[in-house]
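Quick one: co-fold with 6-phosphogluconic acid.
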Amino acid sequence: MSPHSQIEVFPDKADLIYRAVEVVLTEAHKALSHRDRFTIALAGGSTPEPLYQALAKQELPWDKVHVFWGDERYVPATDPQSNEGMARRAWLNHVPIPASNIHSIPTSAADPSEAAQQHEQELQSFFGTPSGEFPALDLILLGIGDDGHTASLFPGTPALDVTDRLVTVGSKDGQPRITFTHPLINQARLVLFLVTGASKLPALKAILSSKEDARQYPARLIQPTGSLVWLLDEAAGSGLNLG
Ligand code: 6PG
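Sure, here it is.
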C-alpha cells in the first residue's frame, strides 16, 4: 500500500456512504480553497449510486465543481448501462451544476479509440496540460469488480499497458469501454475506493497483497502519489487481516 493510504471498514453501507460524503466534501473544500474549483471523476457500477444520491443533498458552489468519469461503457447516456446516466439521475439532475461543468466521455464515434482521443484532448485543454503530462484531478472515485478490475482496466487487457495516454479503450468481454489510464488515475490528489459485498473479498485480498500480479488484479496498478482511501463494508473487509 502507498504510504498515504488508509483502509476503513464499516458495519453497513449507510455508514460507509456517510463517511464517503465526508471524504468528498473535505476534498472539495480543500480544492476550492486552493484552486477555486473541485475536479472529481466518478465511478460507475452500482456501489456509488447512494453516494451520488447523498451528494445531491449537499451544499456546494456547483459552478466551481467539475465532474468527469473514470470510465464509461460505450453506450449513449440514455442507455441503462451508462455510468453518466446513473450519475445524472442520482445526483447531477438535482443540483444547479452548469452543463459545461459535466465533462461526459464521448461514446458516439464509430471508432472508440477516436472517442478516447477526443476525451483526452478535452482533459488536456481543461487542465492546460501538454501532451505527455498527466493532470491531477482532485478526487477520483473507483470501485472494483469481483475479478479485480477497476475503472475499465480489466485483467489481461491491452489497456493495462497504456502508460503514455490519459484515456484509452478498455474491453469487457469484447465490449468496448473508455477508461482513464492507470497513470492518469495515479496522478489524482486523492483516490477513493468504495467496495461493498462479500463477493469482492477474494479480489480485495489479492489487490491488497504485495504478491499478486497486477495484470491479473488491475486495481493493484492504482498506487497514487497522493492519498489512497479504501472504504469497505464488513462483508468486503472483515476477512482482511488489517493488523
Ligand atoms: C463500471 C465501473 C466499474 C465498477 C466495478 C464495480 O463501469 O462498471 O466503473 O469499474 O466500479 O465494476 O461495480 P459495482 O459497484 O456495480 O460492483
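If it helps, The chain is about 30% helix and 20% strand.
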